[in-house]
Amino acid sequence: MPESKSKFLIPAVGAAVVxxxxxxxxxxxxKGPSGGSSDALGSAKVVPSTALMATYITTDxxxxxxxxxxxxxxxxxxVAKGLEDFNKQMFSDSNVSYEKDIKPWAGGVMIAVLxxxxxxxxxxxxxxxxxxxxxxxxxxxxxxxxxGIKDKLSALNFANKLKSQKGVKLQESDYQGQKxxxxxxxxxxxxxxxxxxxxxxxxPEKQAVEKAIDTFKGQSxxxxxxxxxxxxxxxxxxxxxxxxxVPDYAGMVQQLTAGSPQAKQLPPQTLTQLKQIKSVVAGVGxxxxxxxxxxxxxxxxxLNKFQYQSSPGNIxxxxxxxxxxxxxxxxxxxxxxxxxxxxxxYPEMKQALEQARGQLKFVNIDxxxxxxxxxxxxFAFGAIPSNQGILASVGFGGALVFDTSDRKTAEAxxxxxxxxxxxxxxxxANRNIGGKDVTEWQIPRQGALLAHGWLDQDTLFVAVGGPxxxxxxxxxxxxxxxxxxxKAVTGSLQKPNGGYLYLxxxxxxxxxxxxxxxxxxxxxxxxxxxxxxIGFTATSPNKSTSELEMLLALKPTTK
Length: 559
Description:
By secondary structure, the chain is α+β, with helices and mostly antiparallel strands. The protein is built from 18 helices and 22 strands. It has helices at about 5-30, 40-45, 60-65, 75-90, 100, 150-160, 205-215, 230, 250-260, 270-275, 330-345, 345-360, 365-375, 405-425, 465-475, 485-490, 510-515, 520-530; strands spanning about 55, 105-115, 120, 135-140, 145-150, 170-175, 180-185, 190-195, 200-205, 240-245, 275-285, 290-300, 325-330, 380-385, 395-405, 425-435, 435-445, 445-455, 460-465, 500-505, 530-540, 545-555. The strands form 2 sheets. The protein has a 20-stranded antiparallel beta sheet, with helices on both faces. The protein has a two-stranded antiparallel ribbon with strand order 3-4. It starts with a helix and ends in a 5-residue tail after the last strand.
Protein backbone atom coordinates (compact mmCIF):
# COMPACT_ATOMS: atom_id res chain seq x y z
CA MET A 1 0.00 0.00 0.00
CA PRO A 2 1.38 3.44 -0.91
CA GLU A 3 2.53 5.50 2.03
CA SER A 4 0.02 8.29 1.35
CA LYS A 5 -2.90 5.84 1.49
CA SER A 6 -1.65 4.12 4.61
CA LYS A 7 -1.31 7.46 6.37
CA PHE A 8 -5.00 8.03 5.72
CA LEU A 9 -6.40 4.58 6.37
CA ILE A 10 -4.58 3.97 9.64
CA PRO A 11 -5.97 7.02 11.46
CA ALA A 12 -9.38 6.57 9.82
CA VAL A 13 -9.78 2.93 10.76
CA GLY A 14 -7.83 3.25 13.98
CA ALA A 15 -9.63 6.25 15.41
CA ALA A 16 -13.09 5.34 14.21
CA VAL A 17 -13.11 1.61 14.78
CA VAL A 18 -11.31 1.82 18.08
CA UNK A 19 -13.08 4.81 19.54
CA UNK A 20 -16.26 5.54 17.63
CA UNK A 21 -17.55 2.00 17.66
CA UNK A 22 -16.67 1.72 21.29
CA UNK A 23 -18.61 4.84 22.08
CA UNK A 24 -21.74 3.72 20.25
CA UNK A 25 -21.51 -0.01 20.95
CA UNK A 26 -23.71 0.25 24.04
CA UNK A 27 -26.25 2.30 22.08
CA UNK A 28 -26.25 -0.30 19.31
CA UNK A 29 -26.55 -3.18 21.76
CA UNK A 30 -29.49 -1.86 23.73
CA LYS A 31 -31.35 -0.27 20.82
CA GLY A 32 -32.79 -3.49 19.46
CA PRO A 33 -32.23 -6.67 17.48
CA SER A 34 -29.38 -6.56 15.04
CA GLY A 35 -29.25 -7.64 11.40
CA GLY A 36 -26.60 -10.08 10.21
CA SER A 37 -23.00 -9.18 9.56
CA SER A 38 -22.65 -7.53 6.17
CA ASP A 39 -21.34 -9.47 3.22
CA ALA A 40 -20.17 -7.72 0.06
CA LEU A 41 -23.69 -7.31 -1.31
CA GLY A 42 -25.05 -6.11 2.03
CA SER A 43 -22.26 -3.57 2.36
CA ALA A 44 -22.76 -2.37 -1.23
CA LYS A 45 -26.40 -1.56 -0.45
CA VAL A 46 -25.33 1.38 1.77
CA VAL A 47 -22.58 2.60 -0.55
CA PRO A 48 -23.77 5.41 -2.86
CA SER A 49 -24.16 4.53 -6.54
CA THR A 50 -21.65 7.26 -7.38
CA ALA A 51 -18.81 5.11 -5.96
CA LEU A 52 -16.11 4.54 -8.56
CA MET A 53 -14.92 1.23 -7.13
CA ALA A 54 -15.11 -0.86 -3.98
CA THR A 55 -13.02 -3.49 -2.26
CA TYR A 56 -14.44 -6.05 0.14
CA ILE A 57 -11.99 -7.58 2.64
CA THR A 58 -13.05 -10.63 4.60
CA THR A 59 -12.31 -11.02 8.29
CA ASP A 60 -12.85 -14.79 8.16
CA UNK A 61 -10.05 -16.18 10.32
CA UNK A 62 -10.06 -19.54 8.51
CA UNK A 63 -9.25 -17.88 5.17
CA UNK A 64 -6.41 -15.82 6.62
CA UNK A 65 -5.12 -18.77 8.64
CA UNK A 66 -4.57 -20.62 5.37
CA UNK A 67 -1.59 -18.32 4.80
CA UNK A 68 0.13 -19.84 7.82
CA UNK A 69 0.84 -23.03 5.88
CA UNK A 70 3.36 -21.11 3.76
CA UNK A 71 6.65 -19.36 4.29
CA UNK A 72 10.05 -20.00 5.73
CA UNK A 73 10.44 -19.58 9.52
CA UNK A 74 12.32 -16.32 8.89
CA UNK A 75 9.53 -14.97 6.69
CA UNK A 76 6.83 -15.93 9.19
CA UNK A 77 8.70 -14.14 11.96
CA UNK A 78 8.99 -11.09 9.73
CA VAL A 79 5.26 -11.10 8.94
CA ALA A 80 4.38 -11.58 12.61
CA LYS A 81 6.56 -8.62 13.55
CA GLY A 82 4.96 -6.54 10.81
CA LEU A 83 1.48 -7.30 12.14
CA GLU A 84 2.60 -6.47 15.66
CA ASP A 85 4.06 -3.15 14.53
CA PHE A 86 0.89 -2.36 12.58
CA ASN A 87 -1.21 -3.11 15.66
CA LYS A 88 0.93 -0.74 17.71
CA GLN A 89 0.71 1.97 15.06
CA MET A 90 -3.04 1.65 14.62
CA PHE A 91 -3.80 1.56 18.32
CA SER A 92 -1.06 3.84 19.60
CA ASP A 93 -1.78 5.68 22.83
CA SER A 94 -4.23 2.99 23.92
CA ASN A 95 -4.21 -0.50 25.37
CA VAL A 96 -6.39 -1.85 22.56
CA SER A 97 -5.50 -5.03 20.68
CA TYR A 98 -7.06 -5.85 17.32
CA GLU A 99 -6.86 -9.59 17.99
CA LYS A 100 -8.60 -9.40 21.39
CA ASP A 101 -10.81 -6.33 21.14
CA ILE A 102 -11.74 -5.75 17.46
CA LYS A 103 -11.62 -9.13 15.75
CA PRO A 104 -14.42 -10.80 17.82
CA TRP A 105 -17.11 -8.36 16.62
CA ALA A 106 -15.87 -6.87 13.33
CA GLY A 107 -17.30 -8.48 10.19
CA GLY A 108 -16.19 -7.95 6.62
CA VAL A 109 -14.91 -4.53 5.57
CA MET A 110 -15.83 -2.72 2.35
CA ILE A 111 -13.71 0.25 1.28
CA ALA A 112 -15.39 2.35 -1.41
CA VAL A 113 -13.80 5.15 -3.45
CA LEU A 114 -16.21 8.01 -4.08
CA UNK A 115 -15.74 10.66 -6.77
CA UNK A 116 -13.13 13.24 -5.74
CA UNK A 117 -14.44 16.28 -3.96
CA UNK A 118 -14.19 19.57 -5.87
CA UNK A 119 -10.60 20.76 -5.74
CA UNK A 120 -10.17 23.53 -3.22
CA UNK A 121 -7.63 26.29 -3.32
CA UNK A 122 -5.13 26.13 -0.52
CA UNK A 123 -5.28 29.14 1.74
CA UNK A 124 -2.24 31.28 1.18
CA UNK A 125 -1.11 34.30 3.14
CA UNK A 126 -0.61 36.75 0.28
CA UNK A 127 0.51 40.27 1.23
CA UNK A 128 -1.88 43.05 0.33
CA UNK A 129 -1.15 44.49 -3.11
CA UNK A 130 0.91 41.49 -4.19
CA UNK A 131 0.47 40.37 -7.81
CA UNK A 132 -1.83 37.46 -8.52
CA UNK A 133 0.04 34.17 -8.33
CA UNK A 134 -1.11 30.61 -9.02
CA UNK A 135 -2.32 28.84 -5.90
CA UNK A 136 -1.65 25.22 -5.08
CA UNK A 137 -4.59 22.88 -5.51
CA UNK A 138 -5.30 20.23 -2.92
CA UNK A 139 -7.60 17.25 -3.03
CA UNK A 140 -8.76 15.33 0.00
CA UNK A 141 -9.20 11.57 -0.18
CA UNK A 142 -12.85 10.56 -0.49
CA UNK A 143 -13.12 7.11 1.05
CA UNK A 144 -16.13 5.41 2.62
CA UNK A 145 -15.64 2.36 4.87
CA UNK A 146 -18.39 -0.09 5.84
CA UNK A 147 -17.65 -2.52 8.68
CA GLY A 148 -20.05 -5.33 9.54
CA ILE A 149 -20.92 -5.81 13.22
CA LYS A 150 -21.27 -9.54 13.75
CA ASP A 151 -21.34 -9.70 17.57
CA LYS A 152 -22.99 -6.90 19.53
CA LEU A 153 -22.03 -8.33 22.91
CA SER A 154 -18.33 -8.29 22.04
CA ALA A 155 -18.77 -4.74 20.76
CA LEU A 156 -20.40 -3.79 24.07
CA ASN A 157 -17.50 -5.27 26.05
CA PHE A 158 -15.13 -3.33 23.85
CA ALA A 159 -17.09 -0.13 24.55
CA ASN A 160 -16.71 -0.62 28.28
CA LYS A 161 -12.95 -1.01 27.88
CA LEU A 162 -12.73 2.20 25.88
CA LYS A 163 -14.25 4.30 28.64
CA SER A 164 -10.78 4.79 30.06
CA GLN A 165 -9.26 6.06 26.80
CA LYS A 166 -8.08 9.66 26.70
CA GLY A 167 -7.22 12.22 24.04
CA VAL A 168 -10.43 11.73 22.05
CA LYS A 169 -13.16 14.32 21.44
CA LEU A 170 -16.69 13.25 20.49
CA GLN A 171 -19.49 15.33 19.02
CA GLU A 172 -22.91 14.09 17.94
CA SER A 173 -25.24 15.40 15.21
CA ASP A 174 -28.45 14.16 13.60
CA TYR A 175 -29.04 13.53 9.90
CA GLN A 176 -32.20 11.92 8.53
CA GLY A 177 -32.90 10.50 11.99
CA GLN A 178 -29.47 8.84 12.20
CA LYS A 179 -26.85 9.74 14.78
CA UNK A 180 -23.52 10.83 13.23
CA UNK A 181 -20.57 10.91 15.60
CA UNK A 182 -17.58 13.11 14.87
CA UNK A 183 -14.45 11.70 16.48
CA UNK A 184 -11.36 13.87 16.66
CA UNK A 185 -8.06 12.27 17.54
CA UNK A 186 -4.69 13.97 17.05
CA UNK A 187 -6.50 16.79 15.25
CA UNK A 188 -8.00 14.49 12.59
CA UNK A 189 -11.80 14.16 12.46
CA UNK A 190 -13.58 10.98 11.46
CA UNK A 191 -17.35 10.69 10.97
CA UNK A 192 -19.36 7.55 11.57
CA UNK A 193 -22.86 6.15 11.87
CA UNK A 194 -24.39 2.77 12.70
CA UNK A 195 -27.03 1.61 10.21
CA UNK A 196 -29.60 -1.09 10.92
CA UNK A 197 -27.67 -2.06 14.04
CA UNK A 198 -25.38 -4.15 11.85
CA UNK A 199 -23.11 -1.84 9.89
CA UNK A 200 -20.64 0.78 10.96
CA UNK A 201 -20.10 3.39 8.23
CA UNK A 202 -17.20 5.80 8.56
CA UNK A 203 -15.30 8.34 6.49
CA PRO A 204 -12.96 11.32 6.89
CA GLU A 205 -15.61 13.53 5.22
CA LYS A 206 -19.03 14.08 6.82
CA GLN A 207 -20.64 14.42 3.40
CA ALA A 208 -19.67 10.85 2.52
CA VAL A 209 -21.42 9.51 5.63
CA GLU A 210 -24.49 11.60 4.85
CA LYS A 211 -24.59 10.13 1.33
CA ALA A 212 -24.43 6.64 2.84
CA ILE A 213 -27.42 7.51 5.03
CA ASP A 214 -29.29 8.78 1.96
CA THR A 215 -28.52 5.47 0.26
CA PHE A 216 -29.70 3.54 3.32
CA LYS A 217 -32.93 5.56 3.18
CA GLY A 218 -33.62 4.52 -0.41
CA GLN A 219 -31.42 6.42 -2.84
CA SER A 220 -29.58 4.46 -5.56
CA UNK A 221 -26.81 2.23 -4.20
CA UNK A 222 -23.62 0.71 -5.55
CA UNK A 223 -25.37 -2.67 -5.48
CA UNK A 224 -28.01 -1.43 -7.94
CA UNK A 225 -25.61 0.50 -10.17
CA UNK A 226 -25.48 -0.62 -13.79
CA UNK A 227 -22.52 -2.94 -14.17
CA UNK A 228 -22.07 -3.41 -10.42
CA UNK A 229 -24.90 -5.84 -9.78
CA UNK A 230 -23.41 -8.39 -12.18
CA UNK A 231 -19.88 -8.23 -10.74
CA UNK A 232 -20.76 -8.17 -7.03
CA UNK A 233 -21.04 -11.96 -7.09
CA UNK A 234 -17.25 -11.77 -7.22
CA UNK A 235 -14.62 -14.09 -8.65
CA UNK A 236 -14.41 -17.72 -7.66
CA UNK A 237 -11.22 -18.15 -5.61
CA UNK A 238 -10.71 -20.50 -2.69
CA UNK A 239 -10.48 -18.90 0.77
CA UNK A 240 -11.24 -15.44 -0.60
CA UNK A 241 -9.39 -12.66 1.20
CA UNK A 242 -10.53 -9.71 -0.90
CA UNK A 243 -12.74 -8.88 -3.89
CA UNK A 244 -12.40 -5.73 -5.99
CA UNK A 245 -15.27 -4.27 -8.02
CA VAL A 246 -14.99 -1.63 -10.77
CA PRO A 247 -18.37 -1.27 -12.56
CA ASP A 248 -17.29 1.50 -14.98
CA TYR A 249 -13.57 1.27 -15.68
CA ALA A 250 -13.32 4.17 -18.15
CA GLY A 251 -15.52 6.38 -15.98
CA MET A 252 -13.38 5.65 -12.92
CA VAL A 253 -10.14 6.57 -14.68
CA GLN A 254 -11.70 9.68 -16.17
CA GLN A 255 -13.09 10.97 -12.86
CA LEU A 256 -9.96 10.23 -10.86
CA THR A 257 -7.84 11.92 -13.52
CA ALA A 258 -10.14 14.93 -13.71
CA GLY A 259 -9.98 15.31 -9.93
CA SER A 260 -6.19 15.20 -9.74
CA PRO A 261 -4.45 18.57 -10.11
CA GLN A 262 -1.25 16.86 -11.28
CA ALA A 263 -2.85 14.75 -14.02
CA LYS A 264 -3.23 15.90 -17.59
CA GLN A 265 -6.61 15.78 -19.27
CA LEU A 266 -7.08 12.50 -21.11
CA PRO A 267 -7.23 12.88 -24.90
CA PRO A 268 -10.34 11.52 -26.68
CA GLN A 269 -8.29 8.70 -28.24
CA THR A 270 -7.25 7.45 -24.82
CA LEU A 271 -10.82 7.54 -23.56
CA THR A 272 -11.87 5.48 -26.56
CA GLN A 273 -9.23 2.88 -25.69
CA LEU A 274 -10.34 2.84 -22.04
CA LYS A 275 -13.93 2.29 -23.07
CA GLN A 276 -12.94 -1.09 -24.49
CA ILE A 277 -13.10 -2.24 -20.85
CA LYS A 278 -16.60 -1.96 -19.42
CA SER A 279 -16.12 -3.37 -15.93
CA VAL A 280 -13.58 -5.32 -13.89
CA VAL A 281 -13.93 -7.69 -10.96
CA ALA A 282 -10.98 -9.34 -9.22
CA GLY A 283 -10.51 -11.71 -6.31
CA VAL A 284 -7.58 -12.68 -4.09
CA GLY A 285 -7.59 -16.04 -2.37
CA UNK A 286 -5.37 -18.72 -0.83
CA UNK A 287 -5.21 -22.35 -1.90
CA UNK A 288 -2.76 -25.22 -1.55
CA UNK A 289 -0.39 -23.67 -4.12
CA UNK A 290 -0.21 -20.17 -2.66
CA UNK A 291 -1.92 -16.82 -3.17
CA UNK A 292 -4.07 -16.72 -6.31
CA UNK A 293 -5.47 -13.64 -8.05
CA UNK A 294 -8.21 -13.86 -10.68
CA UNK A 295 -9.69 -10.97 -12.64
CA UNK A 296 -12.46 -10.77 -15.21
CA UNK A 297 -12.76 -7.79 -17.55
CA UNK A 298 -16.02 -7.29 -19.42
CA UNK A 299 -15.19 -5.81 -22.83
CA UNK A 300 -17.10 -3.90 -25.48
CA UNK A 301 -16.93 -6.23 -28.52
CA UNK A 302 -17.49 -3.29 -30.87
CA LEU A 303 -14.41 -1.45 -29.58
CA ASN A 304 -12.20 -4.46 -28.92
CA LYS A 305 -9.99 -4.69 -32.01
CA PHE A 306 -7.67 -7.49 -30.90
CA GLN A 307 -8.71 -10.95 -32.04
CA TYR A 308 -7.65 -13.33 -29.27
CA GLN A 309 -6.27 -16.77 -30.09
CA SER A 310 -5.22 -19.36 -27.55
CA SER A 311 -1.63 -20.54 -27.55
CA PRO A 312 -0.84 -24.26 -28.08
CA GLY A 313 1.82 -24.17 -25.36
CA ASN A 314 4.17 -26.47 -27.26
CA ILE A 315 6.94 -23.92 -27.52
CA UNK A 316 7.70 -24.14 -23.78
CA UNK A 317 9.18 -27.56 -24.50
CA UNK A 318 11.94 -25.94 -26.60
CA UNK A 319 13.52 -24.39 -23.48
CA UNK A 320 15.81 -26.21 -21.04
CA UNK A 321 14.55 -27.09 -17.57
CA UNK A 322 16.78 -24.53 -15.83
CA UNK A 323 15.08 -21.60 -17.61
CA UNK A 324 14.18 -19.28 -14.73
CA UNK A 325 12.00 -16.72 -16.55
CA UNK A 326 9.70 -17.06 -19.54
CA UNK A 327 7.14 -15.03 -21.47
CA UNK A 328 5.12 -16.84 -24.14
CA UNK A 329 2.23 -16.00 -26.40
CA UNK A 330 0.82 -16.27 -29.88
CA UNK A 331 0.56 -14.08 -32.97
CA UNK A 332 2.97 -11.14 -32.67
CA UNK A 333 2.11 -10.15 -36.25
CA UNK A 334 -1.57 -9.69 -35.37
CA UNK A 335 -0.69 -7.60 -32.35
CA UNK A 336 1.59 -5.46 -34.50
CA UNK A 337 -1.21 -4.88 -37.01
CA UNK A 338 -3.53 -3.71 -34.22
CA UNK A 339 -0.82 -1.38 -32.89
CA UNK A 340 -0.25 0.12 -36.35
CA UNK A 341 -3.99 0.63 -36.78
CA UNK A 342 -4.32 2.33 -33.39
CA UNK A 343 -1.31 4.56 -34.05
CA UNK A 344 -3.38 6.44 -36.64
CA UNK A 345 -5.22 8.08 -33.73
CA TYR A 346 -2.01 8.93 -31.82
CA PRO A 347 0.27 11.38 -33.67
CA GLU A 348 3.25 10.76 -31.36
CA MET A 349 3.02 6.98 -31.73
CA LYS A 350 2.55 7.26 -35.48
CA GLN A 351 5.61 9.50 -35.73
CA ALA A 352 7.71 7.04 -33.71
CA LEU A 353 6.67 4.16 -35.96
CA GLU A 354 7.50 6.13 -39.08
CA GLN A 355 10.93 6.99 -37.67
CA ALA A 356 11.62 3.32 -36.91
CA ARG A 357 10.53 2.32 -40.39
CA GLY A 358 12.72 5.01 -41.95
CA GLN A 359 15.83 4.02 -39.99
CA LEU A 360 15.51 0.35 -40.94
CA LYS A 361 15.03 1.22 -44.60
CA PHE A 362 18.60 2.53 -44.60
CA VAL A 363 19.78 -1.06 -44.05
CA ASN A 364 17.24 -2.54 -46.48
CA ILE A 365 14.88 -3.93 -43.81
CA ASP A 366 11.11 -3.50 -43.91
CA UNK A 367 9.89 -3.24 -40.30
CA UNK A 368 6.39 -4.51 -41.04
CA UNK A 369 7.31 -7.35 -43.41
CA UNK A 370 10.85 -8.42 -42.48
CA UNK A 371 10.58 -8.11 -38.69
CA UNK A 372 6.97 -8.63 -37.65
CA UNK A 373 5.27 -10.00 -40.75
CA UNK A 374 6.43 -13.62 -40.35
CA UNK A 375 5.92 -13.82 -36.56
CA UNK A 376 2.46 -15.33 -36.95
CA UNK A 377 2.71 -18.37 -34.68
CA UNK A 378 3.53 -19.17 -31.08
CA PHE A 379 6.52 -17.40 -29.52
CA ALA A 380 8.45 -17.33 -26.26
CA PHE A 381 11.31 -15.45 -24.64
CA GLY A 382 13.26 -17.16 -21.90
CA ALA A 383 16.14 -16.31 -19.56
CA ILE A 384 18.64 -19.14 -19.07
CA PRO A 385 21.50 -19.18 -16.53
CA SER A 386 25.08 -19.29 -17.80
CA ASN A 387 28.41 -17.98 -16.55
CA GLN A 388 30.49 -18.78 -19.63
CA GLY A 389 31.91 -16.60 -22.36
CA ILE A 390 30.25 -13.25 -22.92
CA LEU A 391 27.62 -14.12 -20.28
CA ALA A 392 30.11 -14.52 -17.45
CA SER A 393 29.60 -10.98 -16.13
CA VAL A 394 25.77 -11.13 -16.01
CA GLY A 395 25.22 -14.82 -15.24
CA PHE A 396 22.47 -15.49 -17.76
CA GLY A 397 21.47 -15.15 -21.39
CA GLY A 398 18.26 -15.06 -23.34
CA ALA A 399 16.57 -16.89 -26.19
CA LEU A 400 13.67 -16.03 -28.49
CA VAL A 401 11.83 -18.91 -30.15
CA PHE A 402 9.24 -18.41 -32.90
CA ASP A 403 6.88 -20.69 -34.76
CA THR A 404 6.16 -19.35 -38.25
CA SER A 405 4.36 -20.40 -41.39
CA ASP A 406 6.57 -18.10 -43.48
CA ARG A 407 10.06 -19.57 -43.21
CA LYS A 408 11.14 -17.99 -46.48
CA THR A 409 10.65 -14.41 -45.21
CA ALA A 410 12.22 -15.25 -41.84
CA GLU A 411 15.34 -16.68 -43.53
CA ALA A 412 15.60 -13.66 -45.81
CA UNK A 413 15.49 -11.37 -42.76
CA UNK A 414 18.22 -13.35 -40.97
CA UNK A 415 20.41 -13.17 -44.08
CA UNK A 416 20.02 -9.37 -44.13
CA UNK A 417 20.95 -9.18 -40.43
CA UNK A 418 24.00 -11.43 -40.94
CA UNK A 419 25.17 -9.19 -43.80
CA UNK A 420 24.70 -6.12 -41.61
CA UNK A 421 26.77 -7.76 -38.83
CA UNK A 422 29.63 -8.43 -41.24
CA UNK A 423 29.76 -4.72 -42.15
CA UNK A 424 30.35 -4.08 -38.43
CA UNK A 425 33.41 -6.39 -38.50
CA UNK A 426 31.63 -9.18 -36.62
CA UNK A 427 32.68 -12.68 -37.59
CA UNK A 428 29.64 -14.62 -38.84
CA ALA A 429 30.28 -18.37 -38.87
CA ASN A 430 28.30 -21.60 -39.01
CA ARG A 431 28.63 -24.63 -36.75
CA ASN A 432 26.67 -27.76 -35.95
CA ILE A 433 25.08 -28.10 -32.48
CA GLY A 434 23.15 -31.24 -31.68
CA GLY A 435 22.68 -31.98 -35.36
CA LYS A 436 21.34 -28.51 -36.13
CA ASP A 437 22.98 -25.84 -38.29
CA VAL A 438 23.55 -22.73 -36.20
CA THR A 439 24.85 -19.33 -37.35
CA GLU A 440 26.90 -17.42 -34.77
CA TRP A 441 28.05 -13.82 -34.49
CA GLN A 442 31.45 -14.29 -32.86
CA ILE A 443 33.58 -11.84 -30.92
CA PRO A 444 37.29 -12.62 -30.48
CA ARG A 445 38.23 -14.20 -27.13
CA GLN A 446 34.60 -14.01 -25.91
CA GLY A 447 32.79 -16.49 -28.13
CA ALA A 448 29.37 -16.03 -29.69
CA LEU A 449 27.49 -12.80 -29.05
CA LEU A 450 24.37 -14.01 -30.84
CA ALA A 451 23.25 -17.19 -32.58
CA HIS A 452 20.27 -18.28 -34.65
CA GLY A 453 19.06 -21.46 -36.26
CA TRP A 454 16.06 -23.72 -36.93
CA LEU A 455 14.93 -26.29 -34.40
CA ASP A 456 12.54 -27.85 -36.94
CA GLN A 457 10.91 -26.86 -40.21
CA ASP A 458 8.78 -24.10 -38.63
CA THR A 459 10.59 -23.15 -35.41
CA LEU A 460 13.32 -20.51 -35.33
CA PHE A 461 15.47 -19.54 -32.36
CA VAL A 462 17.63 -16.49 -31.70
CA ALA A 463 19.92 -16.74 -28.67
CA VAL A 464 22.14 -14.28 -26.83
CA GLY A 465 25.36 -16.09 -25.93
CA GLY A 466 26.86 -19.29 -27.29
CA PRO A 467 26.05 -21.37 -24.17
CA UNK A 468 22.36 -20.45 -24.49
CA UNK A 469 22.38 -21.48 -28.15
CA UNK A 470 23.82 -24.84 -27.11
CA UNK A 471 21.18 -25.28 -24.40
CA UNK A 472 18.38 -24.57 -26.88
CA UNK A 473 19.80 -26.63 -29.77
CA UNK A 474 20.79 -29.68 -27.76
CA UNK A 475 17.60 -31.72 -27.57
CA UNK A 476 19.13 -34.17 -25.06
CA UNK A 477 18.54 -31.90 -22.04
CA UNK A 478 15.26 -32.08 -20.04
CA UNK A 479 12.77 -29.43 -21.18
CA UNK A 480 11.12 -26.71 -19.12
CA UNK A 481 7.61 -28.13 -19.42
CA UNK A 482 8.76 -31.33 -17.68
CA UNK A 483 10.36 -29.56 -14.70
CA UNK A 484 8.73 -29.75 -11.28
CA UNK A 485 9.14 -26.00 -10.77
CA UNK A 486 7.26 -25.08 -13.96
CA LYS A 487 4.50 -27.58 -13.22
CA ALA A 488 4.09 -26.27 -9.65
CA VAL A 489 3.80 -22.65 -10.77
CA THR A 490 1.75 -22.97 -13.98
CA GLY A 491 0.08 -26.39 -13.73
CA SER A 492 -3.02 -25.07 -11.96
CA LEU A 493 -3.48 -21.99 -14.19
CA GLN A 494 -6.45 -21.95 -16.55
CA LYS A 495 -6.16 -23.75 -19.89
CA PRO A 496 -6.35 -23.15 -22.77
CA ASN A 497 -4.73 -19.75 -22.48
CA GLY A 498 -2.91 -17.09 -24.46
CA GLY A 499 0.51 -17.90 -23.00
CA TYR A 500 2.47 -17.62 -19.78
CA LEU A 501 4.53 -15.27 -17.73
CA TYR A 502 6.68 -17.53 -15.54
CA LEU A 503 9.33 -16.72 -12.95
CA UNK A 504 11.14 -19.37 -10.93
CA UNK A 505 12.11 -17.68 -7.66
CA UNK A 506 13.69 -20.86 -6.31
CA UNK A 507 16.66 -20.72 -8.67
CA UNK A 508 19.87 -19.67 -6.94
CA UNK A 509 20.41 -16.83 -9.41
CA UNK A 510 16.90 -15.33 -9.42
CA UNK A 511 16.83 -13.42 -6.11
CA UNK A 512 20.40 -12.04 -6.51
CA UNK A 513 19.47 -10.98 -10.04
CA UNK A 514 16.38 -9.14 -8.82
CA UNK A 515 18.45 -7.57 -6.07
CA UNK A 516 20.93 -6.28 -8.66
CA UNK A 517 18.20 -4.40 -10.52
CA UNK A 518 16.04 -3.34 -7.55
CA UNK A 519 17.34 -1.97 -4.28
CA UNK A 520 16.34 -4.60 -1.72
CA UNK A 521 16.94 -4.85 2.01
CA UNK A 522 17.32 -7.96 4.13
CA UNK A 523 13.58 -8.12 4.91
CA UNK A 524 12.67 -8.00 1.21
CA UNK A 525 15.11 -10.80 0.43
CA UNK A 526 13.62 -12.87 3.26
CA UNK A 527 10.15 -12.53 1.72
CA UNK A 528 11.47 -13.30 -1.79
CA UNK A 529 13.08 -16.46 -0.47
CA UNK A 530 9.63 -17.68 0.63
CA UNK A 531 8.27 -17.47 -2.91
CA UNK A 532 8.64 -20.54 -5.09
CA UNK A 533 7.58 -18.83 -8.27
CA ILE A 534 5.17 -16.51 -10.07
CA GLY A 535 2.83 -17.60 -12.84
CA PHE A 536 0.49 -15.46 -14.91
CA THR A 537 -1.79 -16.16 -17.84
CA ALA A 538 -4.78 -14.74 -19.68
CA THR A 539 -7.58 -16.13 -21.75
CA SER A 540 -10.58 -14.80 -23.65
CA PRO A 541 -13.51 -17.21 -24.01
CA ASN A 542 -15.25 -14.66 -26.26
CA LYS A 543 -14.75 -11.15 -27.60
CA SER A 544 -16.69 -9.70 -24.65
CA THR A 545 -14.62 -11.25 -21.87
CA SER A 546 -10.99 -11.34 -20.85
CA GLU A 547 -9.86 -13.43 -17.87
CA LEU A 548 -6.55 -13.08 -16.07
CA GLU A 549 -5.05 -15.36 -13.45
CA MET A 550 -1.89 -15.04 -11.38
CA LEU A 551 -0.42 -17.46 -8.86
CA LEU A 552 2.12 -16.43 -6.27
CA ALA A 553 3.41 -19.94 -5.54
CA LEU A 554 4.70 -20.06 -1.97
CA LYS A 555 6.99 -22.51 -0.26
CA PRO A 556 5.32 -24.71 2.37
CA THR A 557 6.08 -23.98 5.99
CA THR A 558 9.05 -25.88 7.36
CA LYS A 559 9.44 -26.59 11.04
